[in-house]
Amino acid sequence: MEGFISALNGIIWSPALIYLCLGAGLFYSILTRFAQVRHFKEMCKLLLNNTESDKGISSFQALAVSLSGRVGVGNIAGVAAAIGFGGPGAIFWMWVVAFLGASTAYVESTLGQLYKVEENGQYRGGPAYYFERCLGWRWLGILFAISAIIGCGIFLPGVQANAVGNAVTQIFGDGNMVVTSFGEVGTHKLIALAVILIVLAFIIFGGIKRIAHFTQIVVPFMALGYIVLALIVVFLNLDKVPGVFSLILSDAFTAQAGFGAAIGWGVKRGIYSNEAGQGTGPHAAAAAEVDHPSQQGLVQAFSVYVDTLFVCTATALMILITQQYNVVGELTDGSFIVQNVDAATEVGSAAFTQMALLSVFGPFGQVFVGIALFFFAFTTILAYYYITETNVAYLNRVFNNKLPNIVFKLLLMFMVAYGTVNSAGYIWNIGDIGVGLMAWVNVLGILTIFFMYKPTMRCLRDFEVQKKAGGPITFDPVKLGIKNATFWEKRLAKQQQEQK
To answer: Which of 2, 100, 306, 368 is deepest in the core (most CB within 10 A)?
Structure first.
């Protein structure tokens, strides 16, 4: 099975997908005239929007839910894996993916807002909805919904849980070994799993509101604390910083692990971490209460910066400054191109990051990474559940067959348990398949939408014109020639009726 998973991962994550994601980001960056740079100030202002309703959440809460998906194991273990398999130069390609991916995130999240619907007292949206409502291709909506349920409900939660289990083991050891149906598992890992499952069950049975209120507190707090520790490491080693950046930039093109490995792992881990192009961000974006679709698109673009340029860079600097990493060779004999730490250290785990902080802060640093991993991974699992729930709701609409959400809740919790006790490399491969499935469908879909209808460009121009003119921001899809944005049509009609 493990060999089949690796082979399938290699097919899905062929160079074609890597360059498709990079190309889509560059394409939209040019067409929007690099809106991710021009509207940076506006992004920051929009973060202060705390307007929520009974049906929707605020822009900041939507950002927090989205960040809970973006800021996760990919920022700690994923960066370590990118360095371990692709060399320091992989970090440069993560930056490239973040910069270009911010424009992709704007496009897909604007579409999520534009074509959202109101169902059972909640705002819902995402690629499945905008493929059906914009393109009229219900089959593509169904295809994405199925890939999202497989990816976010089955494949990806295990990656997050696995990193938490490994971090606990790194701190406390295995404890007593217990024979389970998954094999021998340490008691410390089982205790961590029990805590995750209990808290997870409490929150996911409470819906998007409970998820939003939890993540808006936890995500900013943990991300800020993590970045502060990284800055301390940087300031204590300021003399090494120029050399680290020089290493990253030079290795991006001369690549210790080979140019293909650097760009491949940088792009793969970058997309896994910041999720731009996956189609996951639009689900949270659609739930936000805003005045114009482009507003939430810009907020979601900012979340890519937070994820990769801030948190991922913080991890990379800590690992490279303290030199707590190995770089695996292309051969399968276990040889290393660079070996600074014990060869037994698992490359795909958070061990490099924990060892980096241990070398500076002692045991506190190692424990802090474990705590950060727990909260980052836990909130990401919550985001995955919300995405799964949204796509289950979509399929219920299409097939008119109410599948019980309880089944998917229990399935997700089982995959969390399964991921916790398996090896990191195997679980990362499964997670990459989930990411790749969604990315293929979503990126090709949003490019098709652009060439056929260009709704996001019309939204952006409309928003920019209104901002320049001053006054209140409104949105009229009919005026822009955008069809099937029925939520916004009804909202505008209601506003006009109230003004009479």
So the answer is: 100
